[in-house]
Amino acid sequence: MNTLIDMVLRLLLAAALGAGIGYQRERANKPAGLRTHILISLGSALFTVVSIFGFGDGVDVSRVAAGVVTGIGFIGAGVIFRGIRGDHVAGLTTAASVWATASIGLAAGAGMYLIATIVAAIAVLVLMIPRVKG
Prior knowledge:
Blueprint: H1 3-27, H2 34-53, H3 62-82, H4 92-109, H5 113-127
């Protein structure tokens, strides 16, 4: 397959899968919604694509994935921090969805189309589980 077409497909899949998760968060009226999740998935995929195709052979592409995982923690922390109200912490599920969306983008960027799609579907299903109040 043409490398350019392959790269574009990886990025489009990442954006679409991020959109699915972001749409659910948007509908649930959460602080990180559609655009945020698309950009997180797309950015993660692009970092992965660039690390695979942009630096040539002999480069440790896993270093970029490690950087994405570390960097996405700051965004997740911001979502949680924004949700702190008194002794109640809010935003943990949205932060987790941001983290999962980054991993889906990494998988799509690495060409793992099926696993990225399956995990995105599972994530949406999990996010649709009603919250148990206790």
